Amino acid sequence: MRGLYRTLELPGKNPLKDAHAALDAAVLAAYGFSAKKDLLAQLLALNLDVAGRIERGEAVTAPGIPPGYPDPTKFITDDCIRPQ
């Protein structure tokens, strides 16, 4: 695994770098975070908000596919990045 991740240190295009960048962007968008702001501060604010909701007895839905989604298998793939 380390050999694969060492390719991230090499200059130039790399499918693993591209995948990490896409994942980072998707996570930021999913949580409504901004890459231009302090990520730890944004995460703390989110955690405090969720904790407050739990303390008030409000329902909190975890990220991901909602429990009642009709066919979650549509979101499961078998593709992956393979080392060259």
Keywords:
84 residues, mainly alpha, flat
Descriptive account of the structure:
The structure is a single chain. With 84 residues, this protein is mostly helical. The chain has one domain. Helix content is 46%, strand content 0%. It is built from 3 helices and no strands. The longest helix is centred in the first third of the chain and has 17 residues. It starts with a helix and ends in a 29-residue tail after the last helix. 0% of the residues are buried. The model has no long low-confidence stretch (mean pLDDT 89).
Give the amount of beta strand, in percent: under 5%
Shape: flat
User: Which regions are unreliable across 5 or more consecutive residues at pLDDT < 50?
Assistant: none
Number of strands: 0
> Quaternary status of these chains?
single chain
The rounded distance between the terminal residues' Cα atoms is 13 Å
Task: Estimate percent helicity.
Answer: 40-55%
Output the helix-strand order.
Answer: HHH
Task: Give the integer mean of the pLDDT values.
Answer: 89
Helix and strand composition category: mainly alpha
Q: Give me the number of helical elements.
A: 3
**Total domain modules:** 1
Biggest sheet features: none
Task: Round the Cα radius of gyration to an integer and report it.
Answer: 18 Å
